[in-house]
Amino acid sequence: MALPKLLSDSDLLSLALSHKARNQLSDKDRAIHNWYRFVLSFPPHLVRHYLQRFQVTEKTVVLDPFAGTGTTIVEGKKLGLSAMGIEANPMAHFACSVKLDWSPSPSALYQTAEAIAAAVRDELALLSNLTPTLSPEARALLFKDAISPRPLQKVLTLLGHIDRTSSSYYPYYRLALANSAIFASNLRFAPEVSVARKHKSDAQVVDHWLEQINTMASDLTISRELSPAQQSTVVHLGDARQPHLHIPPDSIDVVITSPPYPNEKDYTRTTRLESVLLGFVENKAGLQAIKHNLVRSNSRSVYSDDNDDQWIQKYPQILEIAQTIDQRRAELGKTSGFSRLYARATKLYFGGMARHLANLRSRLRPGAQLAYVVGEQASYLKVHIPTGSILAQIAQDLGYELIDIDLFRTRRASKTEVDLREEVVLLHWSGANSTWISGDIGKKSAV
After folding, report:
1. Hey, which of 115, 120, 220, 420 would disulfide with 106, CB 3.0 to 4.6 Å?
2. Stated pTM of the model
3. Is 9-91+232-429 CATH 3.40.50.150?
């Protein structure tokens, strides 16, 4: 049986608004979603749009293989659907996991937090002149002046009290702290991560944290009252290029996801401050280990042993784009490390996505429908990368049927002032025998 109408009048209005407004989180969607959210996350109403278009039922199983902070999976949970996700960034995986657990008592969650806040305020009153402590290795991972000394002291003191608590609400308190650390920091997201010129010498960290907990408690009360019967929801910590390691065979009906774009953005920077503070990354080696499990979308995550570009050697369009990038870089005399690696990062990106789509096939049920939110790029050296159409071609060569490429919105490239398309590539998996099974694209072998 199909679920009731998923899109409200306000959803339809959001999809009809300006392209900028289409990507904004509406007030009615803030519950749970806004506990922690990437600045570049796609909106819940877009997920509902495609769930409705795909005519999901209560038996539908939804997958987001690039789960991020859980937009698709949380929305699936709100609608009573079974949903799974894969996410390689430990901070995002943690946030998504917390947002999927609605079991705590809202009143007890807040009351325990009040006791922690009182103890932290007492301690801070006695420690006004102490220097906050982060290990030199951890501090080296942060932007210079990412957070000022006094706010950092407050964050670390609060974190110490949270870490010493034996409460089952421990994960919620840590997630709220991640939001409070960003609030207290000097970081700005527009959408690149940078340090603001004006630094915060102090911030009301404990008050902000308690407000976050209060919001969580309120959201839990509402969600538990309104949500239909709950199905299974889970997010796995892992590499989206290897979904077969986490997802059961022949189990997925719908995929709604937004992988990274080949846009020279290091997505680990977006979560770097809170990742360091919560201990998800402690040194450069730990950061590199995280990056090894990500699709290569930027030159800061390219390593000598990467070989995903093997998968796209038969694609002249991708090779030509990479060659154009490298030629233009040479003409302009750009010799920095990331400049020299960006052409290779572009090939690795599409190779990684091909690897993902190839390994995903055995996890899809016949008739599965897929939606990939991706964006064109032209921000680096003004070389145009039509991400959606290239991914569509790769998918078709892997046995998927291309249904359509929808325009979600256009966005203005911050460096070049060029309008770029953000699209939704719609695919169908028939489950019929495919001429592709594994290895480099270009090498055909029967199933």
Report:
1. 220
2. 0.91
3. yes
